[in-house]
Predict the structure.
Amino acid sequence: MQTDIESVLISEEEVQRRVRELGRQITNDYAGRNLLLLGVLKGAVVFLVDLARAIDLPLQIDFMAVSSYGVSTKSSGVVRILKDLDSAVDGRDILVVEDIIDTGLTLKYILENLAMRNPASVKVCALLVKEKSRPEGIGADYVGFHIPNRFVVGYGLDYAELYRNLPYIGILRQA
Ligand code: IMP
Ligand code: MG
């Protein structure tokens, strides 16, 4: 499988070090709050389980699954909720955990949807943010790494549902 990877963009050690840093920062910022980590399935799962263990606070975990309409590889911004979260949002301090922000349109939809449900606060923690790719989208409050505009896989990110289990972030070899 490793032969499909052109190069390692972020090593396992770098990822783990940065996740621990983010966990410490979130621990400081959310002390005494009512923290709900909201993972966006499926890409954010690997990041979320490591991040949750790096946060030294009482917290709850929930998940949402969304899908863009259409088959285009470009994000349309029209999003369908495939699985809603189980928890009540009302009064919670929600930290949306995302794998990667490209256009930011998926996230924009999720944030607008959550805002209507009266949470105490909503912030975003994204492992990766692609450079110069958010014309009308939304940024993140916590960012693991800013990366160039390449298609990456690993640590939860997939190509055709594969490579999510790589412990590093890699650039996929072009077919
Ligand atoms: P956005 O609405 O354009 O921000 O779409 C973000 C979603 O597209 C992410 O949650 C990923 O599922 C997917 N995505 C965007 N860029 C990549 C990439 O480089 N590798 C894998 N998935 C990606
Ligand atoms: Mg995906």
About this structure: The first helix runs from residue 12 to 29. DSSP finds three helices and nine strands in the chain.
